[in-house]
Amino acid sequence: MFELRIHGRGGQGVVTAAEMFSVAAFAEGRHAQAFPSFGSERMGAPVVSFCRIDDREIRLREPIMEPDAIIIQDTTLLHQVDVFAGLKKDGYILLNTGRSFEELGLGELAGGRPPERLCTLSATELGLKHIGRPIPNVPLLAGFAALSGLIRLESVIKAIGEKFSGKVADGNIAAATEAYKLIKARMAEVTQHA
Amino acid sequence: MLKQIEGSRAVAEAIALCRPEVICAYPISPQTHIVEALGEMVKAGELTPCEFINVESEFAAMSVAIGASATGARAYTATASQGLLFMVEAVYNASGLGLPIVMTVANRAIGAPINIWNDHSDALSQRDSGWMQLFAETNQEALDLHIQAFKLAEELSLPVMVCMDGFILTHAYERVDMPTQQQVDAYLPPYEPRQVLDPREPVSIGAMVGPEAFMEVRYLAHAKQMQALERIPQLAAEFKQVFGRDSGGLTHSYRAEDAETMVVAMGSVLGTIKDTIDEMRADGHKIGVLGITSFRPFPLAQVRAALQNAKRVVVLEKSLAVGIGGILSTDVRMALSGLHVHGYTVVAGLGGRAITRKSLHKLFREAEQDALEHLTFLDLDWDVVNKQLERERTVRRSGPAAENILRDIGTVASKIA
User: Are residue B138 and residue B6 in the same domain, yes or no?
Assistant: First the structure.
């Protein structure tokens, strides 16, 4: 079973991202379970969502406390929430930021982990560019697909089609495609250097 | 057709396939997504003929459902928590009058302190209301139970609550197999009322009944629920014939063969319990679980048969009867009367407290050693409790307990679970 936890703030599409991830995994024939942790239903308040993926029925209903991957949609949470709690040693981290792990004061955390599992993406900018709104969830999801290889870009695009329509869907597909390519290229560099 | 959708959406689509004629709704979390989706379907003309009535309160929602059902319409509503409590007078009237309304209860705690998260306090507060109460383990089962509920309700002319865990199920995206309209039509015949308000054949419904007949009318309500004990397994079997899967029924045992320790629970926590039991079985522990699907009527004979060979029974329930302990466990004890079985009540998951495999492993191992208290509160923070008790011992104006405890534990935004 693969377990993903997404941290962000109310209004950033944190819950939608986990739901879309489950739809993308379902499109590839997997079992998937996405659910939110409604701590506080307010714009800007810390929000957590979860997604499990497996090849058999998922019965477990506990929150994900030892994730295989963490997506952080808002790095201001780093000072507020223990976002990395329980993350497995070789777990994936994807941060929405234009800065490096070191610049965010996460050098020590990154140092002990496999570099091909850590990545950053300026997802808010991609959201602004393609959708016209500072919503980073879909670019991050596509970026995570590229980083982990767990789901294909086409499946992310299929999930976008189920959630959105018209211009919003087109913008999200463009954002997802650019994010996917950016991270694929970035990770190819990392593997080359390693 | 397999779909990856939210539990609320799955239930809404299943309700639509049941061809309801009147849906009344008042929004309350975590039920709202169900009636929102149904409202959209009615407005878009996808669900017709059906009237969607926005009402001004839950009391009105149940009252409108009663009126609609009495005129022969298939009526549906949904609620949770304080919403259920606000409609209680009408809830009792619906069952007392024998009107086959189906209502989803998206289980949520009851305040004070106000809390939007899941436990079973709301539905269990209505255990004696005369409604049948079915509990879903998964979104698939929630969907299936609603289809069975209309058939059960209408055959017996008695209302049914389908209970599904708020947020944990209602807001979870998971795989469901959505039936076709033809399948549902083959299973669920059009509603043929036993009593109907019809100007062509005028009757009154709702007579005042004095001591001369009240007992008899009430007994008949009980007799109908006893009939339901026979009908519910048959309806599950008929369901399997049409839809090809096991869903519903009175109870379900899992890995109960040779089990010395049997856990009893209701709702979505059964999934986490089953995973824990698989892990313990792999280590040689003789443990199994009994899931109760039908809480009302309560299947005393089936529960007794499923548990009588165990050495101990651990009832894990998301409810608390303040002043005695368990609610479900009281009924389970009644099923076990006269048997020499160790009985433990575990109150867990109140107000959305996560029930984890880790805690269950520890709990079940303690039970196997018969080292549990007869009443246990799973993962209760004793430091927090004792601090407040100490405050109340030493200071007369100790202040509101909830606010004191929140101050003691500090910010919760930093916690994942």
Answer: yes
The answer to whether B342 and B311 have CB atoms below 8 angstroms apart is yes
Clarify whether residues B266 and B369 are in a common domain. yes
Q: What are phi and psi of B398, to 5 degrees?
A: -80, -15
pTM value?
Answer: 0.97
Would you list the DSSP string of B29-45?
Answer: TTTHHHHHHHHHHHHTT
Q: How far apart are CA B233 and CA B180, in angstroms?
A: 23
pLDDT above 90 as % of chain B:
98
B80 plus B220 within the same structural domain: yes
Is B406 inside a domain boundary? no
B390-417 mean pLDDT: 86
Q: Can you give the residue range of the structural domain that contains B11?
A: 2-243
Q: Token pair of B264, please? A: 């009893």
Which candidate from A26, A35, A64 shows the least CB-CB separation from B175?
A: A26
Option in A32, A46, A62 nearest B355 (CB):
A62
Mean pLDDT, range B301-314, rounded to an integer: 98
Is residue B81 domain-shared with residue B176, that is, in the same domain?
Answer: yes
Residue B412 confidence class, pLDDT cut points 50, 70, 90: low
The answer to the question of residue B109 being in a domain is yes
* DSSP secondary structure string for all residues of chain A: -EEEEEEEETTS-HHHHHHHHHHHHHHTT-EEEEEEE-S--STTSEEEEEEEEESS-----S--SS-SEEEES-GGGGGTS-TTTT--TT-EEEEE-SS-TTTTT-HHHHHTS-GGGEEEE-HHHHHHHHTSS---HHHHHHHHHHHH-SS-HHHHHHHHHHH--HHHHHHHHHHHHHHHHHHHHHHHHHHHH-
**Rounded to an integer, what distance in angstroms lies between the CA atom of residue B40 and that of residue B46?**
9
Same domain, B12 and B129: yes
Domains of chain A are 2-193 (3.40.920.10)
- Confidence label for A40 from pLDDT (cuts 50, 70 and 90): low
pLDDT at B416: 61
Query: Assign residue B26 a region: left if phi > 0, alpha if psi is -120 to 50, beta otherwise?
Result: beta
Average pLDDT of span A65-94: 95
- The predicted complex's ipTM stands at 0.95
Token look-up 């910010």 returns B411
Contacts of A80 in chain B (CB under 8 A): 413-414
B174 to chain A, minimum CA–CA distance in Å?
5
Provide the pLDDT for residue A43: 85
Residue among B336, B321, B337, B331 nearest B377 (CA): B321
Does residue B156 lie in a domain region? yes
How many distinct structural domains can be found in chain B? Answer: 2
If asked whether residues B122 and B192 sit together in one domain, one would say yes
Q: Which of A23, A39, A60 sits opposite B413 (nearest CB)?
A: A39
B97 and B155 both lie in a single domain: yes
Same domain? For B299 and B231 the reply is: no
Instruction: In whole angstroms, give the CA distance from residue B94 to residue B65.
Output: 8
A80 touches chain B (CB under 8 A): yes
